[in-house]
UniProtKB/TrEMBL annotation:
<dbReference type="Pfam" id="PF00557">
    <property type="entry name" value="Peptidase_M24"/>
</dbReference>
<keyword id="KW-0645">Protease</keyword>
<feature type="domain" description="Peptidase M24">
    <location>
        <begin position="174"/>
        <end position="375"/>
    </location>
</feature>
<keyword id="KW-0378">Hydrolase</keyword>
<keyword id="KW-0031">Aminopeptidase</keyword>
<dbReference type="GO" id="GO:0004177">
    <property type="term" value="F:aminopeptidase activity"/>
</dbReference>
<dbReference type="InterPro" id="IPR029149">
    <property type="entry name" value="Creatin/AminoP/Spt16_N"/>
</dbReference>
<dbReference type="InterPro" id="IPR000994">
    <property type="entry name" value="Pept_M24"/>
</dbReference>
<dbReference type="InterPro" id="IPR036005">
    <property type="entry name" value="Creatinase/aminopeptidase-like"/>
</dbReference>
<protein>
    <submittedName>
        <fullName>Xaa-Pro aminopeptidase</fullName>
    </submittedName>
</protein>
<dbReference type="InterPro" id="IPR050659">
    <property type="entry name" value="Peptidase_M24B"/>
</dbReference>
Amino acid sequence: MVKIEHNVRYQGRPSQQEMQRRWNLAREFMKERGLDYLVTQANDGVLCQYVRWFAEVRPLHYTYLLFDKEGGMTMISHGGAGGKAIPWEVGLTNNIAIPVFNNACYADSFAAEKAVEVIQKKGCRRLGFIGMNLITVGFYNNLIKRLPGIETVDVTDEFDYLVAVKSAEELRFLQAACDLHDAAAYAIPSLVYAGRLEREFGADLYRLAMLMGADEYLSNLFVCSSRLAGPMFPLHYQNKIIEEGDALNVLFEVPTMEGYYADLHRYFNVGAPAPEMLEVMAAGIEIQDYLADLCKTGVKGNEVFEACNEWLTKNGFDPETRLCGHGQGYGLVERPYFDAFDNMELKENMYLAIHPTVKAKGASVQIGDNYVVTAGGAKRLTKHPRGLTII
């Protein structure tokens, strides 16, 4: 379980050896591709894996990060002019605050101007971007405009392998994340009863997660109670009274103090369950095991998705139309994606959430567990038993 050190402000820090491992990987990556700088951005704490991988802190605002070929690191984020973007020492060469929020569109050049000042001090011929879909137009356009003649390249596809393959230290942190989620799942039956509002249960689960050592961005606590499980809802929609016979659909994905996510999706029935729920639950466990066995090194994400839909349609279920799993880590979702589009190859020590959806006779379940990729298939790290828990 995650431990909270009393009177210590900044907790869950990776070791210096782990951070040096990442920086060395990034420098070698840049050397092989002739890059002078890497540039990336984080816009929230849920999909912030690139900035956090480099600089360990979870951004509170739009945050821009530059990493140069010599290992120098610059962070630009919200704060008072002339001050620091973050108060902690995390190995930054430049820690730059800009006194505007990102929806102040008149100031869309501020971050780029600071980035250009840093880049021009050392010179740059080739600039690599990580996560183009996360980089704001204002920052990108102003950066390019102020750096004429510089070659730019999107290196996300290759860099994602550095982030997706976890180190031994990261895997220890990730197992702790799974253990936290297991503990919460075991506590859920004591928080559920007929006549209770979903919102009341959700609030208790939120508080439990926080006290067990979960960190910021506890937004992925989805709940829904119905006779036949189906959709799930965030806090704003958790307004139904839990009734006798309801299946409570709970998606619980929170980050630990170390910043790592786990995925736990479970179902709890208040009283006797509907027969349809038992049928789809059994199928959900079967297909999850099938997909985990497929997740060997060399298999591609879209191949897992294709195999999932072949299994579903062969067994009389609706096909998956979104994705049936994904990587996790500092990001709630990371590559590889098990969807129709991602051709990323699985590598040993990638950390996965596998959660295929099974629908039949009005019922729908999506059992979610975490795994680590091995040469012989994915090993389940989640320990809480699968299946419908009767309360």
